[in-house]
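Methods — Computational structure assignment.
A single polypeptide chain was analysed. Its primary sequence is given first, followed by the predicted tertiary structure written as structure tokens.
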Amino acid sequence: MYRWALSVVTIASLILGGASALAVETSRDVTLRLAVKGRQRIAYLHVPANPAAKRYPLIIAYHGGAGNAEGYIQQSRIFDKGEQAGFMVVCPQATTLPGGGNHRVWNSGAEYALPSRHADDVAFTEALIREIGAKYPLDSKRIYATGFSNGGQMSYRAALELSQTIAAIAPMSGARLAGALRPGRAVPVLHIHGTADGYYPLQGGLGAYSLGPTPHVPIQAVMSEWAVFNGARAAPQSIRREGWESELYAGRAPVELVLVDGMGHQIAGGADNHLPDQPMRDSPDAVAMAIKFFAAHPMP
């Protein structure tokens, strides 16, 4: 488990050829507290060790519905994997569900407006990016979003409404259709899902363990929609691996669906993050796969 503390950050201005760059000397975990539209919001940021004058890519990672940022960080190990790859990672905290406790939900679509108390999580995301960019060496062309379940849905919403900021997304085990929204530019998409997901069934609808009365949309419909948005090929190329399969809609802004055989509602590659009533598979490593995808897709 991580210990969160407000850190003292050393920021030096290096004037090189008339350009100013920020430098952060050592890796650290930082608690960010922001006021967004009259609400106090919180997020946990990991800043990796930084050679002088280097600017970092940023991953915005949304935890799952009824979960929380602390559990997501521990289960996904996304801070450790971000550190290894040289990414800053921020895990924002969603709004507490009615009834209290540390169970939280993102306002990722109309069905979540009431349980999230109409939280403006798009504005929260924008505020986080501004805060991080003001204090740390952020590469504005390499800002990405990922998330699990309801957090995966939130990453789709971020891609739709913040397409000029978010370079690419990697949702896991959760999706949404665009409805009346349209991205302002093509946003590469990597979606990872288990074939035996009983909370968010691959084919859509309600699974044996689905929460709430609203049927989920088929994952294939979301992939096809984004292939159109991105001008990618209409027919995917299937690539079979041991234990999983990739369906790639090729193009300059590709859309890729990774299907993990027999996996339930979990973040693939983590042995400690599956739900007790769901089948578990340990590979591939979804977070590592997402980071590799991000590294290949900066903002044009």
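Note: Residues 248 and 256 are 4 Å apart (CA to CA).
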